[in-house]
Amino acid sequence: MKVKNARPAAKIRRLFDGAGLYLEISPKGGKWWRYKYRYAGKEKRISLGTYPDVTLKEARDRRYQARKLLDAYIDPSEHRQIIQSQLVTSATNTFEIVAREWFAQRELTWARNHSSRIIGRLENDIFPWIGKKPIDSITPPQLLEVVRRIEGRGVLETAHRALATCGQVFRYAVATSRADRDATADLRGALPPIKRNHFAAFTEPADVAILLRQVHGYSGSVVVRCAIQLAPLVFVRPGELRQAKWADFDLDAAEWRFTVSKTNTPHIVPLARQAVAILQEIQPLTGRGVYVFPSARSAKGIRPMSDNAILAAMRSMGIGKDQMSGHGFRAMARTMLDEILGYRPELIEQQLAHQVRDPNGRAYNRTKHLDERTKLMQDWADYLEALRLGVEQGRKPTSATSAQEQSAAQRSM
Questions:
Q1: How open is the CA angle 234-363-103, to the nearest 5 degrees?
Q2: What is the 3-class SS of 76-98, one letter each residue?
Q3: Which residues, other chains included, contact 62 with Cβ-Cβ below 8 Å and sequence gap of 6+?
Q4: Which residues contact 76 (CB under 8 A, 6 or more apart)?
Q5: 16 DSSP 8-state letter
Q6: CA dist 303 to 101, 242, 294, Å?
Q7: Is residue 337 within 8 Å of residue 393, measured between CB atoms?
Q8: Which of 109, 180, 196, 311 counts the highest number of beta carbons within 10 A?
Q9: From start to end of 94-247, where are the E strands?
Q10: What does the alpha-carbon distance between residue 162 and residue 141 come to, in Å, rounded to a whole number?
Q11: DSSP symbol at 310
């Protein structure tokens, strides 16, 4: 309301919002959003649009994007000039130009490995065929021919993802008046559906008990043994486990804090006493290095263990790839925490570092339900320990309360 009701004066007026954003009101009544910042020791400013075409919320969003560029040591003004110089060329609406503009606006909000996959897919599989074509001239059959080349290599899922990325580029082109419609809309069902193969995992208590005894008796390297013993207790993604860093652990607080590789968001893993014991066992061996589980070929612990180390260990114990995978520990925890220990699905999903939203549609922060998740992790570790020792037969409780009573009974044995 303050912005809406602001009146001009004899001289330029400025209403400050904070963090460099302000509204400039000219004597004639025009209202411009400006962003003031420092780059290379110099004070600079750029326009973020005019009010009411650009609302206060949109101006704040644009300030946020400009600050993200500064965090990446990019001058927002120079970045805009580069984008605008591309847009004033004769080929301003080619698919490649539009796609790169779309990508530039989004990559700073993505995890690095995700953005690398997106631009790599575009550069390798899309741009060579339709990159130079005006985006509003590309027809659905032309686009289908491009994605079928990918399908022909035997990577159907990649073809589907490439088509989905093209759809986002087309919708951006429509929003920026470079195209009239999304050409991918006519291609729904044109590619064969993906047959989902779920990660192999043990979810029956009797099978899990055998697996845990095999893991407990593994006679290979100490590093691999500790990693494979810790895996079911923390059920993080395989890459996050093998790249775990000592700097992210607080054994006194029994917590592991790191950034989730898939979503680039902070996450907390409460550590059960069994998990802490494993880490305390390996700390004298690898604690002076960077990684908890370093590569056997890295004497100073500056390289993480191979992504195949745990799989190779399971195969050496006779556990087939159709029985258990590295991701299988996550599926095992997801199923058994729900069906056997009776924990709420949203609590389990949050501990799995999946995107979970509250009833108002807001994403839970990393500390949400931390006390409950701490109890969940200890109950889970106690349950697995009881399975391994043969004192728990995997009876399904009738409620979360009975699950907690069952876990307490196990600890009293």
A1: 95
A2: HHHHHHHHHHHHCCCCCCEHHHH
A3: 33, 35, 48, 49, 54
A4: 35, 37, 39, 46, 66, 69, 70
A5: E
A6: 36, 10, 6
A7: no
A8: 311
A9: none
A10: 15
A11: H
Question: Which residue type does 325 have?
Answer: S
Residue 86: alpha-carbon gap to chain centroid: 31
Residue 188 burial by CB count (10 A; 0-12/13-18/19+): exposed, middle or buried? exposed
What single DSSP character describes residue 266? E
Q: Is the dihedral of CA 352, 355, 358, 359 positive or negative?
A: negative
Three-state DSSP class for residue 172: helix
Strand partners, 21: 18, 35
Structural tokens at position 77: 């003004």
Weakest-pLDDT range from 42-56, 126-140, 281-295, 316-330? 316-330
Cβ within 8 Å of residue 67, ≥6 positions away: 19, 20, 37
- The pLDDT value recorded for residue 299 is 62
| Biggest CA-to-CA distance, the chain | 85
Give the CA count within 13 Å in the CB-facing half-sphere of 98.
29
Answer yes or no: are the C-beta atoms of 351 and 377 closer than 8 Å.
yes
pLDDT digits (tens, 9 = 90+) for 94-143: 999 999 999 998 887 776 777 888 999 999 999 999 999 999 899 999 99
Tell me the C-alpha distance between 34 and 65, whole Å. Answer: 13
Higher pLDDT pick, 385 / 409: 385
Cα separation, 220 vs 230, whole angstroms: 15
Answer left, alpha or beta for residue 177, where phi above 0 means left and psi between -120 and 50 means alpha: left
Instruction: Give all domains of the chain, ordered by start, each with its CATH number.
Output: 2-83 (3.30.160.390), 89-187 (1.10.150.130), 205-412 (1.10.443.10)
